Every structure is written in C-alpha cells, then in structure tokens.
C-alpha cells in the first residue's frame, strides 16, 4: 500500500491528474497521468523524494548514481547528494545516460567521459516513472556493457506494474505504485466517446499530428 504522506506530496504538487484523455509515450491511452514534471518545479519536494529514493541503500556501497535523460538527470543529482550526506568516506558520483544528438538514434550511451566512471563500480539506477521498463532496461544494459554492477533501481512511481524480470532482474524500489487502466487506440473508450485528447501533457499533440498526417 502506498504511504499516504508520499501520495499527498504528489497530489500537492499536481503530479497526479485524472479525468482527462491522455496518450502515453507507449501509444496507449488512459484517463490518468502522472505528471512528474510538476515535481521538478519544486527543489525542496525533489530533495525530499530523492532522499526517500536513496534511503534503502547503504551510502558507502553506491559508487555512482545513473539516470536517463531528461528527468533522470535531476534525480541522479539529488539521490547522489542524499547518499553523500550519509557517507563518512569517499563520494557517490552522479552521471546520466543520453540518446543520439540528432534525435533519430534512440539508444542510450554515456557521453562527456562518463563511461570512465562505470567499470568496476556499484551503480544505482534512478528513474521517474516506470511504465513498461523499456527505457530503464536500456540504461541497465548499458551500465552492464560498460562493466558496472547494477545494485538496484529506484523510481518515483511504478505505474505499469514493472517487475524485476522486466529490467534485467534488478531489485526495484519505488515510492508509489499506481495501477492504471490503459487502452490501445482501437479499444479506447474515450476515443469512441470523442473525448478531446489532452495536448498539454503526455504525447497527445504528437498523436493528433500523426492522425492529421495520415488523414
């Protein structure tokens, strides 16, 4: 069961939105959206949540925190900071994995010399919202190819019932878990009822643009 205090933090920041018609990055539709970007506006909120993300892990055992662009950059910084507050020796570093600069290559890689800080290190991977686990699985695979040891995955929200097997058998720690009813475009009741698609959050704007191009 979710901690009511954590749920209240999300609610107060406007990070859980319902009663609309959203399109996710996966292409599936739902009436509920986890607006993690609303959390990033508030540094004290993010600092508090990232301290919770770091809490289950021994500070001295984590050498590097890795997050995927873009939101994972913020999380990796604050989680590493929370770990360093508890460390008596050494330092936990924060790096991030990025995608192709031209936007066409969707594979993650370590740029800016960050790859030099992965091999032989204990790595904590962080993410904001887990839907299918696909993106964070890519990051975990990248860390392993670089010789890093992934000790865990810590995320703000698991909205897709993602399991360790979905992310390379890595233990998962999440602050909240939300079970959402999602639909494919063909079965979506909101599409059938012609409920307007939300274009401010999610991928609704891109979805409508593709529909217009096909039509």
From TrEMBL:
Ranges of residues in domain Phosphoribosyltransferase: 43-161
Reported cofactor(s): Mg(2+)
EC number: 2.4.2.10
Pfam families to which the protein is assigned, alphabetical: Pribosyltran (PF00156)
Catalytic activity: orotidine 5'-phosphate + diphosphate = orotate + 5-phospho-alpha-D-ribose 1-diphosphate
Glycosyltransferase keyword on record: yes
Annotated residues for binding of 5-phospho-alpha-D-ribose 1-diphosphate: 99, 127-135
Binding site residues for orotate: 131, 159
GO MF entry, a single one: orotate phosphoribosyltransferase activity
Gene Ontology biological process terms from the UniProt entry: 'de novo' UMP biosynthetic process; pyrimidine nucleobase biosynthetic process
Keyword annotations of the record: Glycosyltransferase, Magnesium, Pyrimidine biosynthesis, Transferase
Listed InterPro entries: OPRT, PRTase-like, PRTase_dom
Gene3D superfamilies reported for this sequence: 3.40.50.2020
Pathway it works in: Pyrimidine metabolism; UMP biosynthesis via de novo pathway; UMP from orotate: step 1/2
Biological role: Catalyzes the transfer of a ribosyl phosphate group from 5-phosphoribose 1-diphosphate to orotate, leading to the formation of orotidine monophosphate (OMP).
Family as reported in the entry's similarity comment: Belongs to the purine/pyrimidine phosphoribosyltransferase family. PyrE subfamily.
Record text on subunit structure and interactions: Homodimer.
HAMAP family named in the record: PyrE
Designated name of the protein: Orotate phosphoribosyltransferase
Gene: pyrE
């Amino acid at each position: 069961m979710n901690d009511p205090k954590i749920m209240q933090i999300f609610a107060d920041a406007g990070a859980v939105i319902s009663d609309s018609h959203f399109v996710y990055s996966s292409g599936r539709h739902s009436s509920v959206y986890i607006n993690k970007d609303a959390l990033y506006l508030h540094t004290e909120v993010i600092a508090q949540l990232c301290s919770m993300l770091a809490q289950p892990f021994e500070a001295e055992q984590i050498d590097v925190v890795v997050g995927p662009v873009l939101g994972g950059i913020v999380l990796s910084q604050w989680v590493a900071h929370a770990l360093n507050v508890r460390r008596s020796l050494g330092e936990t570093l924060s790096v991030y994995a990025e995608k192709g600069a031209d936007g066409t290559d969707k594979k993650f890689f370590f740029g800016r010399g960050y790859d030099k800080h992965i091999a032989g290190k204990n790595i904590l991977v962080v993410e904001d919202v887990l839907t299918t686990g696909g993106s964070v699985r890519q990051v975990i695979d990248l860390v392993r190819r670089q010789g890093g040891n992934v000790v865990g995955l810590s995320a703000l929200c698991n909205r897709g019932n993602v399991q360790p097997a979905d992310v390379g058998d890595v233990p998962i720690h999440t602050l909240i878990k939300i079970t959402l009813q999602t639909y494919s475009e063909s079965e979506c009741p909101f599409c059938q009822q012609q409920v307007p698609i939300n274009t401010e959050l999610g991928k609704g704007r891109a979805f409508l643009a593709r529909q217009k191009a096909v039509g």
